[in-house]
């Protein structure tokens, strides 16, 4: 039976309404009829980690938009189902169960932050799901065989990270002789601080202050005063997110600036933009300069992320390691699906165990303990309101120097 023009218009409108209700892109719904591949995860879009969570969300959106323009994954569009865990590990645990059982996502992408990653990983393990994550700070906390990190931390950053930091400072005139460890009780930060104290002792540095505070602390006045009294050659701060800015503010109020200061996992933009941040150092695995932008897909990623970050009003619209680690996690997922030839958690995990993946962070492989390969961590510094890599020297931008 032939449809009248009016009936055809009514049917077309109904189809459009259905696509809107189910969240299917119109162009895809008119294609093969296969459902999109739904990747589920949480991010801290509110709470103390929100400033970093938004960076990860935008980086994920850059990847999803790009892969869908390229025709999707295994010929199917990709949809990111992201929920707000509010920077709370208990929320992450509940929401990952919801993603698997109620939302029935095809694949999982890990949240941001060690505590939430561990909570979500426990859920993934119960359901035998592939679990790719971008920011676990302590690999030893993650023995699950089907978890894969995008950050090349190596199996023991607990000691290696502070070795790297002190190697960098030892290359400068007047290397430090005293050090203060002031850290959040955030699990990875606390463990890295304790490992750092071991390294300082081995190297003959005197620890003049060892202080721990609750994650989410906002009043750093008393902590700043104790740092000033100790007056270390290096402040090793296990600050997470906006804690670095809050500590810098507190020290500024009492007219104190450490001779040299390192912050572990700071919110990148607010920290770089702080008036007292010149010379501040932190860990990195990617910055938007040579040689990093020669990595697989890095130049296009940087351009797309900067455009999206500016559109979202990010105060620091720069593609640095937080954004790159999220993007690399999605590159790992894409490589695993293409390598396995299907969306199957166990098959994709087996492929990753046996192969290398080209990412914006460089080549990633997953041999060794905790599916972690050799460490590839660097030290970056705030110079002129921007983060640049300064150690090892071969990763500095052209003409760069450690100040």
Automatic annotation (TrEMBL):
What sequence ranges are listed for the domain Leucine-binding protein? 36-373
* Coiled coil segments of this chain: none
Q: What is the protein's given name?
A: Amino acid ABC transporter substrate-binding protein
CDD domains reported for this sequence: PBP1_ABC_ligand_binding-like
Keyword Signal assigned to the entry: answer is yes
> Which keywords has UniProt assigned to this entry?
Amino-acid transport, Signal, Transport
**Similarity comment text for this entry:** Belongs to the leucine-binding protein family.
Indicate the secretion signal residues.
1-29
Cite the InterPro entries for this sequence.
Answer: BCAA_transport, Leu-bd, Leu_Ile_Val-bd, Peripla_BP_I, TAT_signal
Mention any Pfam family matching this sequence. Peripla_BP_6
Q: Which domain of life is it from?
A: Bacteria
Species annotation? Variovorax ginsengisoli
UniProt entry tagged with the keyword Signal: yes
